[in-house]
Specification:
Blueprint: H1 2-25, E1 28-33, H2 39-54, E2 58-63, H3 68-80, E3 85-88, H4 97-105, E4 110-113, E5 123-129, H5 131-146, E6 157-162, H6 169-187, E7 191-192, H7 200-203, H8 210-224, E8 233-236, H9 239-252, E9 260-261, H10 268-276, E10 281-284, H11 287-302, E11 319-322, E12 335-338, E13 341-344, H12 349-353, E14 357-359, E15 366-368
Parallel strand pairs: 1-2, 1-3, 3-4, 4-5, 5-12, 6-7, 6-8, 8-9
Antiparallel strand pairs: 10-13, 11-12, 14-15
Helix pairs in contact: 2-11, 3-4, 5-6, 8-9
The structure holds beta-D-glucopyranose.
Beta-D-glucopyranose binds near residues 114, 168, 238, 265 and 285.
Length: about 375
């Protein structure tokens, strides 16, 4: 009996040591997403949480309602909670300097997720897509679809731009990629911009707001197109803005053609608009792959490594390692950049192949297979 008791005691001790050991091993990741009101961040948050938890990490996930003060507070709380790694998609890339200095003081490494965080040396890495290429794909789509030819100036077209949030470092890359690609045709007079709005600042959309994009486009249509001037292209940087622009075209455009409307993300409402002919394309970025890349990077950082190009071998998605493009004001931040691609009505099945979308019961529209969207 005595022997049995001592064996039991020994067993209990071993078990509790194991569980203590395990508890000491478990690391927690703090994830700060900008807002639930823009569709993609719901998907990002969900995939990141799922993938980190499946890999054995604890996760604290916060959304900050597109409110800069709240995001600073939320990240401050994650730091106070003692997370081991921060993954942050900034609402305003310029506004986290002090909070991230605190993270650095606490020895917490930070990954800038999708959007570069400016003016802080607390960032170890940046994970995103090739943001300039997103814009290039939109511009090239316009060139190919309209069959533009610099040698042939006989046919001209009208185009208007809608860009993103000036507080988001990505927005300038998207606009720049599209504008640079189309500029030769603008210079040649093949593409005209009746509103004359050629600068990013003139066409930016704070908070990437659908409503603001709608109002801006309504104003442009009222001022420059009410006399029957034909709008051929609405170059929109992303899907949330394309949604508003498409609505303005439906309600306020006098012409009888459907302009080309570009987008980015593959938001569900926009995929519907693509089926319905109200949007022409979207540049798709597989955010499950973006989460997977962040997981591999996070694992390496938490194991005390300082990964570089060799991490690419562990990734299941195609990506590049970039040490030139993304300078955040304190130096270039090493970046893992995934590859975006174009989706049109004819290639929607490519999204189904990712496993992240499926056709609805009527086989008419795509729906997300993710739980929260
Ligand atoms: C992302 C885009 C998104 C936009 C608005 C950008 O930072 O890269 O994918 O459309 O934010 O949510």
């Amino acid at each position: 009996m005595k022997k049995a008791l001592s064996i039991l005691l020994a067993l209990v001790m071993v078990l509790s040591l194991c569980s203590m050991g395990f508890a000491a091993e478990e690391k927690t990741v703090g994830i700060a997403m900008p807002t639930r009101s823009l569709e993609r961040w719901n998907r990002d948050g969900e995939y990141l949480q799922e993938q980190f938890e499946a890999a054995g990490y604890g996760v604290e996930l916060v959304y900050s309602d597109n409110d800069i003060t709240q995001q600073n507070n939320d990240i401050g709380n994650l730091i106070a909670d003692g997370v081991d790694l921060l993954i942050i998609s900034a609402i305003d890339g310029e506004s986290l300097t002090q909070t991230l200095a605190d993270a650095k003081d606490a020895g917490i490494p930070v990954i800038a997720y999708d959007r570069l965080i400016m003016n802080t040396d607390a960032i170890s890495y940046y994970v995103s897509f090739d943001n300039y290429t997103v814009g290039v794909l939109q511009g090239q789509f316009v060139i190919d679809t309209l069959g533009l030819d610099l040698e042939d100036t006989s046919k001209t077209y009208n185009i208007e731009f809608t860009a993103g949030d000036p507080a988001d470092n990505n927005a300038g890359f998207f606009f720049g990629g599209a504008f640079d690609t189309l500029k030769p045709y603008i210079d040649a007079g093949i593409l005209n911009i009746p509103s004359g709005k050629t600068e990013f600042e003139q066409v930016a959309t704070p908070a990437w707001s659908t409503d603001t994009a709608l109002t801006n486009m309504q104003n442009t249509l009222a001022s420059y197109y009410s006399d029957g001037t034909v709008l051929d292209v609405a170059l929109c940087s992303n899907d949330s803005t394309a949604l508003g622009v498409a609505q303005a075209i439906t309600s306020d455009y006098a012409g009888d053609n459907q302009p080309l409307v570009t987008g980015q993300d593959g938001d569900i409402a926009n995929l519907q608009n693509i089926v319905d002919g109200l949007q022409t394309m979207t540049v798709y970025k597989n955010v499950s792959d973006e989460a997977g890349t962040t997981l591999e990077l996070g694992k390496a950082i938490l194991a005390g490594e300082t990964p570089a190009a060799e991490l690419l071998e562990n990734l299941s998605a195609e990506a590049s390692y970039d040490t030139e493009t993304y300078d955040n004001g304190t130096g270039v931040i090493p970046s893992y950049l995934l590859v975006p691609y174009v989706i049109t009505k004819d290639s929607l099945d490519r999204l189904v192949e990712t496993g992240l979308y499926e056709w609805d019961a009527n086989n008419q529209y795509l729906v997300s297979t993710a739980a929260t969207t």
